[in-house]
Structures are given as structure tokens and as C-alpha cells.
């Protein structure tokens, strides 16, 4: 059986001769044919059997073709069936009325067989392509869900053993199991550093799987963003000090606002950590906070090599590698900025960068003072 043998055309016309003419040459070209002599018959037929396409006369008694079309398009199971009006009406008003009702095309009377066959074929092929695209999109969504599930499971199962490796290597380095030579300590420190990088990647993968699966839930609190930033500057001071980098804070506000503290710690930590990685030794990193137009604005400005326009286009993508390199060979997962941007956007905010080559980079976080997410949770 050919493809066309399976394609059913419903012809709706109150003139038996028109039904006979259309039905005859469509049948000769391999299409299945069903006929209805008025709008009521057409609607009843469609309720029981879904044709692949409908050829619908406009001028019919009791219920015209426009009304038939509107009613069919209101029926969920069959609303996607293409409806082609067959009519002698050629004025713009009538044609617009037909398209507004949901019609896909017009075939003007007097009809020619070649035109009818061509238009029917085009709309059937288009519908098939749309279905194929829809099916492909559903397959991609299923694969994406499986990917996120796998990432989450794999990362979760790796987190505990990596934590154990880090803990035990620290204990051995500290001499808890006996004296360790300088050479052994050096090797163990490399193991510890590698484990830490792997654990960071695992945590980032868990965040990606949670965010992309739509399961990121913010735990909103009304608290001080200034205090949060101060704590992160203190914690990051040791890392910055290893490169002789000064972390300079400039707070223009101490106003409290609404945000998820744990998630915003991730964002601030990531931005300061990146600034340290890309800044030269004995330089400065400026961290600012201000209240502006009902928004809390955080800025992290480094003195690194800057970011090219090309790199800025892919900066917030996952697993991106940019042309600028960390000044001391530090490693990263390529996920931090992507995760940070999604966290900020979940707060109904924005994360953007202002940079040019040779002039450093400033990362700017903007979140509402009275966050819509928090308001929705309270209501």
C-alpha cells in the first residue's frame, strides 16, 4: 500500500456534482475519499474519523464554511488538520475571514485538477514535516531528561568517594598515620588537589542536572547581601593572597533584600574566584554593592587580560574554553558562569559582563530588592 492510499481527504460541498468531480480525480490519484453535503455532516464525520486534509466549500446553507472551520479548529484532537477553502469568493475581506477562522489555504473556483492536487500535496507534506519535527523534538527532550538523570546519578555516586579521598589524604599529609616524607607529602598534595578539582566538577554537574531538569527551588530569605559578600571576601582572601592580590570592597548600601543565600554564595564565590584566576600577581580586585532603582547591584572588577567580543558571546555557555588563560594555570570546570547565570535568572535578575581586551572585566549581577519569586511563595 502506498503512502497516498492511507491519506484520507474529506470533501465538504452541498453540490453533489462538485463532490463527484473532486472525489473522482482525487481517488484516481491514490487518495482515500470521504464526502459530506453540509457542515453538520462534516463535523459529525470528523468527530469519529480524522481525515488527513479537508476541502471545504464556503457557500453552503445553514452553516457556511467559515463556521464549519471554526468549529473543527475548536476540537482538540483534530485542530491540526489543514482545511482548504474552495470558493468563488476572491475579495480580501472574505479571504482574511477564512484565515482568521483557521483555514490553511484557498482554492478558487473554477477549479483545475492540477492546482487542487498540488495544494493538497503541499499541505499534506507540510503536515507530515511538522509531525516529524514534533516527534524529533519529543525524542530530544526525552534524551535531555535521560542525560540530566544520568548526570545527577553519576555525580551523586561520585561525591562521597571523592570526599573520602580528600579526607584521608589530608589525614596522611598531617601525619595522623605516621611521619610522611617531603616527597610523599608532595605526591599526596597533588592527589588532594586533583580530588578537589574532581569534586568541584561533580558539584557543578549536580547543579547543571538540577537546573536543566527544572527542579531548582530557591529558598528565599530577607537578609543582608553586604554581609554575604563580606564573608566570601574573607574566605577567598587566602586564595587571593597566594598571588598577592588585594580584594577591595566598596559598599554603597547595607539594605536587606530577598534572595536564596546559599545560591547567591555560589554566584559571588564563582565571580571572585574567576577574577582571582585571571588577574595578575600583586593586582587588585574591586567588589562593589549598591542599591539602584529597586535593584541590588553587585560588581566584581578584575585587572586581567579582558575578554574579546567573540569570547563574550559564549562566556555563559556550558563547558566553554576561552582564549584568555588563568594567570597561574588554575583549572576550572567550564560550568561556573553558566550555573551562576541560571541562578541569577531564577531570581528574576541578570548577569552580564563589561569588558574589552587589555582592560580587565567587570561582571555585574542585578537582582530585585523585593523579589517576585519570594512574593509568589508568600501569597
* First-last Cα distance: 60 Å
- Strand arrangement, major sheet: 2-1-3-4-5
Element pattern in H and E? EHEHEHEHEHHEHEEHEEHHEEH
How many β-strand stretches? 12
Return the structural class. Answer: alpha/beta
Unreliable runs: none
Query: Per CATH, which architecture of the largest domain?
Result: 2-Layer Sandwich
Tell me the name of the CATH class of the largest domain: Alpha Beta
Number of domains: 3
What report would you give on this structure?
The chain is α/β, with parallel strands linked by helices. The protein has 3 domains: 4-111, Rossmann fold (3-Layer(aba) Sandwich); 140-212; 220-378, Heat Shock Protein 90 (2-Layer Sandwich), CATH 3.30.565. 51% of the residues lie in helices and 18% in strands. The protein contains 11 helices and 12 strands. The protein has a 5-stranded parallel β-sheet with strand order 2-1-3-4-5, with helices on both faces. Strands 7-9-10-12-11 form a 5-stranded mixed β-sheet. A two-stranded antiparallel sheet has the order 6-8. A hairpin with a 2-residue loop joins strand 9 and strand 10. Helix 5 (113-173) packs antiparallel against helix 6 (182-212) and helix 7 (225-241) runs parallel beside helix 8 (261-278). The longest helix is centred in the middle third of the chain and has 61 residues, at 113-173. 27% of the residues are buried. The mean pLDDT is 85.
